[in-house]
Structure formats: C-alpha cells, structure tokens
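Hey, can you fold this one?
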Amino acid sequence: MVKSIHPFYKEKDVVFKKELIGTWSDQDNGKWIISQVKKNNTPVNYYSVILDNDGGVSKFATHLFKLNNQWFVDFLPEELSEPDITAYHLVKTHSLAKIEFSGDQIKIKWFNEMWLADLFKNNKIRISHETIKGNDQEESYVLTASTEELQKFIIKYGDDPNAFIDDQDPGSKDRKEVFCYSLKRIKK
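Sure. Predicted structure:
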C-alpha cells in the first residue's frame, strides 16, 4: 500500500456523496460502516469509515475527491482509542484508493506499491519519497511530495491499469493482504 505524509486531496476537490453512507459488506464478509463526520453537531464534507473484519477493527477519516474525471478516496487512520507505547512510534500516513460506483456496489482499489516500486527502481518517475527497509529487508515507500505534486502524479498515472490493485491483477492473489474490495450495500 502506498503511503504519503501529505494528503492526496485539496479541499476544493473534495466531494460529498450521501449515497456512500450506510453499511456495506465486502467479498471477505468484512463489514464497512460509512457515516458522515460531524464537528460541533454540524455535518462536514468527509466520512468516517469503520472496517470490521476477522483481523480486527480499523477506523479512518476519508475524503472522496475527483481528479481528471476519476473518483479517489484518501484514507487517514483515526487515533487509536487506547494507545500504548508502540503507537507513539507510528506516523499516521495517507493512503490512496480509486473508487468505482455501480448501483449498490462500490469497488475500492488501493494504489499499487509494487507498481510504484518498479517505477522507482527503473528511474521512470521522479516524485519526492523515502525508501524504508523493514526487518525483512523488504523495501516500502513513503511519499513526501506536496499535495500539488501528488495530484499531478495521480492525473498522469490515474488511467494506468497497473497503478491501482484490481482483484484481477497477477500476483495479488498470492498476497495475504487484500487491497481491492468489492462492497455491496447491506443497509442505508
């Protein structure tokens, strides 16, 4: 999953679609609860997303936005309710997914880190980032580019069929993580 220090959206690009609000089920029977965030009892232009699956509960603040006639969602983890000392070592980062709507179904396809890694390793792109080696020496990337640079990148590569993980992507079935979700509405 591609991570960024800065958001992928600008406020002027954020769109609120009330039809996203509700409870959804994914292909692995995970439950997604999407609601509108309120500040001081006033609805704001973004969503709270709670994903409840076998691996636990994940909570995100999400912003839906449109660039180049394509829909995207910026996911930012919410604060941990009971942080331990480990949480103080973690940096909250944004992730990006492309979103497709079809009636009472939504497809969420996360930005493909393997595709991005290939571009970096072959010097095919120049965007500010840091390379992080994990304990297993596998590299991951954190984008440090400004939101403006990130949006130029999204516009340039948003149509590339390999840029976002689809459930039909070769190799994605071998991964433990699922980065493409097909959601069906359970209730509004």
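The longest helix spans residues 147-157. Let me know if you want another pass with a different chain boundary.
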